[in-house]
Amino acid sequence: MKNKILHNATDMFLNIGFKSITMDDIATNSGISKKTIYAHFSNKIELVQAVTLNMFDVIKKVNKYRVDLATLGYSLEISVLYF
């Protein structure tokens, strides 16, 4: 459930902006209650921090994957298609 919340919150924050999104919006978009979100994140700031850290992890993985594929002769454009 935590990953579902992170995924939906990330999508909404990146496309709409974190200042415009409420916990109600995330709950509705995720098909869960606000209470469920608060079971995993004590407030919106904690959720924004978790989303940010998760995005850093994704970027690290993409960069590592790109480097690994580059050593095999693949370009980033091709590697992203298979990530």
Features of the shown structure:
83 residues
Quick summary of this structure?
This protein has 83 residues and is mostly helical. It has helices spanning 2-16, 23-30, 34-40, 44-71, 76-82. The chain has one domain (2-82): Tetracycline Repressor, domain 2 (Orthogonal Bundle), CATH 1.10.357.10.
- First-to-last CA distance: 22 Å
Uncertain segments are 78-83
The number of distinct β-strands equals 0
CATH topology: Tetracycline Repressor, domain 2
- Provide the CATH top-level class: Mainly Alpha
Q: Give the overall form.
A: elongated
* Average residue pLDDT: 85
Could you tell me the strand content as a percent range?
Answer: under 5%
* CATH A-level architecture: Orthogonal Bundle
Order of helices and strands: HHHHH
- Helix content range: over 70%
Q: CATH H-level name... which superfamily?
A: Tetracycline Repressor, domain 2
Number of helices: 5
Radius of gyration: 16 Å
How would a crystallographer describe the biggest sheet?
none
> Helix/strand-derived class?
mainly alpha
